[in-house]
Design a protein that fits this description.
373 residues; alpha/beta; seven-stranded mixed beta sheet; four-stranded antiparallel beta sheet; 13 helices; binds 4'-deoxy-4'-aminopyridoxal-5'-phosphate; binds glutamine
Length: 373
């Protein structure tokens, strides 16, 4: 793991505390999830859900995840064998990559990529190949399907997809998903798809799981998380769904990572999933996106407005790492250099700002940026 060091999120959150900055770096909301969800978890602790839960997750959460995938996307899953509860999406990603790839194998990622993908490929002893997402003049992030097709070799085991995408905020559309699906089917690859922002799409956009495309359900591991859907990122309740054979392989690895986790949180999340308790969250976030993006544009920043997620991208037309190191001292605001999510130099001038913060916090950040400009 040489070269991975401290994650950029830990580094920048520590810098935010040290410099008393507004933290628009690490993506976590500064308001709690639904009151009922919090009360249900407290109740579960009070009523004795405090020992190891079943290895695959408590039955009510597995049933709720299966019902969610069916009702939202028409995906039919057996909660007994095709749903696995994990310690956040992070563990599902790690266990999936460790299950699928080993020494000498290759895994395809889209860059910029969420940092744990590259780390997990390294943990597996495998090699990553990256396909670059680039913003077009209208601010739409696109990839070249020919680049994807050319990246596949006989050692390719999986494609890791993330939609809606961190850090770009891109929602992969059906035509783009079809391009990825075609490559996966042609080369008999598994797609690991990280869909933790599935309910955080804006402007009426809808998220399409790649598992719903023809030929894909049998070769896709879909990953979700309560952290983003219910604004409880510290709870670390995630899940992986897909065909029994693939979920079984993920479960084998998961057993030796955490074994199990989050006993009192699991029944609470089950109830919130069943109740559809994410209503209104995307609308609130969209308003926060517009507040930050409009404000930064008015200050002269070159902003790429996201279609989903917690994050906006700003092209600082200079060295992003240097910009982010200086910004806390210069303005009292912390952001993340998107360049750390690339292997290539395509993101060298891009900076990620999180807007999953209360409007007063975003206003304060804008005022500080204005003063420093
Ligand atoms: N995937 C993506 C794309 C993320 O942005 C994050 C972090 N929020 C995670 C996975 C990790 O999710 P969790 O906190 O459920 O482990
Ligand atoms: N997913 C969040 C982000 O992208 C936080 C991740 C983390 O701290 N590991 O900011």
């Amino acid at each position: 793991m040489r070269g991975f060091g401290t994650t950029i999120f830990a580094e920048m959150s520590a810098l935010a505390v040290q410099t008393d900055s507004v933290n628009l770096g690490q993506g976590f909301p500064d308001t709690d999830g639904p009151a009922q969800l919090l009360a249900d978890a407290a109740e579960a602790i009070r009523t004795g859900h405090n020992q190891y839960p079943p290895g695959q997750g408590v039955p009510e959460l597995r049933a709720a995840v299966a019902a969610h995938q069916r009702e939202c996307y028409g995906l039919h899953l057996d909660p007994g064998t095709e749903v696995l509860v994990t310690a956040g999406a992070t563990e599902a990603i790690a266990a999936a990559i460790l299950a699928l790839a080993g020494s000498g194998d290759e895994v395809i990622l889209f860059e910029p990529y969420y940092d744990s993908y590259a780390a997990c490929v390294a943990l597996a002893g495998a090699t990553r190949k990256t396909i670059t997402l680039r913003p077009d003049p209208a601010g739409e992030w696109r990839f070249d399907p020919a680049e994807l097709a050319a990246a596949v070799t006989p050692r390719t085991r999986a494609i890791v997809l993330n939609t809606p995408h961190n850090p770009t905020g891109k929602v992969f559309g059906p035509a783009e998903l079809a391009e990825i699906a075609a490559v996966a089917v042609e080369h008999d690859l598994v797609v690991v798809t990280d869909e933790v922002y599935e309910h955080l799409a804006f402007d009426g956009r809808t998220h399409t799981p790649i598992a719903t495309l023809p030929g894909m359900a049998q070769r896709t591991l879909t990953i979700g998380s309560a952290g983003k859907t219910f604004s409880v990122t510290g709870w670390k309740i995630g899940w992986a769904t897909g065909p029994a054979q693939l979920v079984g392989a993920v479960r084998t690895v998961k057993q030796f990572l955490t074994y199990v986790n989050g006993a009192p949180f699991q029944p609470a999340v089950a109830r919130a999933l069943g109740a559809g308790s994410w209503t209104g969250v995307a609308e609130r976030l969209q308003a926060q996106r517009d507040l930050l993006c409009d404000g930064m544009q008015a200050l002269g920043y070159d902003v790429i407005r996201p279609q989903a997620t917690y994050f906006a991208t700003v092209d600082v037309h200079g060295d992003a790492v240097e910009f982010c190191r200086e910004l806390p001292h210069r303005a009292g605001v912390v952001a993340i250099p998107s360049s750390v999510f690339y292997d290539s130099d395509a993101g060298d001038s891009l900076v990620r700002f999180a807007f999953c913060k209360r409007p007063d916090v975003l206003h304060e950040a804008l005022q500080r940026l204005e003063k420093a400009s």
